[in-house]
Design brief:
Radius of gyration: 15 Å
Largest sheet: 7 strands, mixed
Shape: globular
Helix content: 10-25%
Number of helices: 4
CATH superfamily: Nucleoside Triphosphate Pyrophosphohydrolase
Length: 169
């Protein structure tokens, strides 16, 4: 069973519980998310498989829970390997943190998003959570968000609105 740390709005740990219980009760817990950006500035987004929360939509290529007691950077490295195939040392930076809450797939997601950017030219090695990927220049992404917003998942829209508002103008 996977355990996560319940945190308050200041990101202070309150207690450790199962991820399932955190979702059932809608308790705030940490999740790492990362955008992957190439040296040319292209963003890689993955298309979620049919059993995931943003099924059929493009989302950030890396995202997952921070396990109880795990550092945020270690969680990022673990998720980057699991969801993108990044096994080697890679360059990354913290972009920011923000609470994202929603009800989806019969559960309450109350996540303290910890957003990173990873810089690599490596193409993703997809796992069972993804069915494809696409690379976007910032201008292509800006156009797609404006002309076809339903192509992207709700969590990605939240990230863009919160951390990358220039993609919306």
């Amino acid at each position: 069973m996977e355990y996560v740390d319940v945190v308050n709005e200041n990101d202070e740990v309150i207690r450790s519980i199962s991820k399932q219980e955190a979702h059932e009760k809608g308790l705030l817990h940490r999740t790492v998310i990362s955008e992957v950006i190439s040296n040319e500035g292209k963003w890689t987004l993955i298309k979620q498989s049919s059993d995931k929360q943003d099924a059929g939509h493009y989302v950030s290529p890396i995202g997952g829970h921070v396990e109880s007691g795990e550092s945020e950077d270690d969680a990022l490295k673990r998720e980057a390997e699991e969801e993108y195939g990044l096994k080697d040392v890679f360059k990354f930076q913290l972009k920011g943190k923000k609470i994202f809450s929603r009800e989806i797939l019969g559960r309450k997601e109350n996540h303290y998003f910890i957003l990173y950017e990873i810089y690599t030219d490596k193409k993703p090695v997809l796992n069972e959570e993804s069915v494809g990927y696409e690379m976007f220049s910032p201008e292509e992404l800006k156009t797609a968000l404006k002309e076809n917003p339903n192509k992207f998942g709700a969590a990605f829209h939240f990230i863009v609105q919160t951390f990358y508002p220039l993609l919306l103008v």
